[in-house]
Write a structure and sequence with these properties.
Blueprint: H1 3-18, H2 22-26, E1 47-48, E2 51-52, E3 56-57, E4 62-70, E5 77-84, E6 87-96, E7 102-108, E8 113-121, E9 124-125, E10 129-133
Parallel strand pairs: 3-10
Antiparallel strand pairs: 1-4, 2-4, 4-7, 5-6, 5-8, 8-9, 8-10
Length: 134
């Protein structure tokens, strides 16, 4: 076999291997499998849970609100929000989400009566937690 023919044969085999393997390169079209469709999934929606360590406190007595933060990056800040009238107001109580996806915020309230609180991180908010200040 002359050298030119060997180089041509090696070239054809190399191209066939690069094109998808020797079996696929020489297979009939009926034997080839169509690629499976790629299905895009939406990222999981962020969720926050909240639980107060006490349901009744004295004015300015410290308590904690803790919970889990799913779909929120570790190190992100969560903020306590209080319902005042018809709107939610952010309080100066914040805490970071830790690496295990949980948080705990220290809170002190001075407004007597039932206070409705929730935790917020961006546009994600937790269910409402009620704490009564006597």
């Amino acid at each position: 076999m002359n050298r030119a023919l060997r180089y041509a044969t090696v070239g054809v085999v190399a191209v066939a291997l690069l094109a998808g393997g020797s079996a696929a390169a020489f297979a009939e079209p009926a034997q080839l499998h169509a690629p499976s469709p790629v299905v895009a999934t939406a990222p999981a929606a962020a969720q926050l849970t909240a639980k107060a360590s006490a349901t009744t406190v004295a004015p300015w007595q410290e308590f904690r609100i803790s919970g889990a933060a799913k779909g929120i990056a570790a190190g992100s800040k969560v903020t306590v929000q209080q319902k005042q009238g018809a709107k939610w107001v952010a309080l100066p109580a914040q805490a970071p989400v830790n690496a295990s996806g949980t948080y705990a915020v220290r809170v002190k309230l001075g407004i007597k009566g039932v206070n409705q609180l929730r935790i917020g991180a961006g546009s994600t908010v937790s269910p409402v937690v009620s704490v009564t200040v006597r």
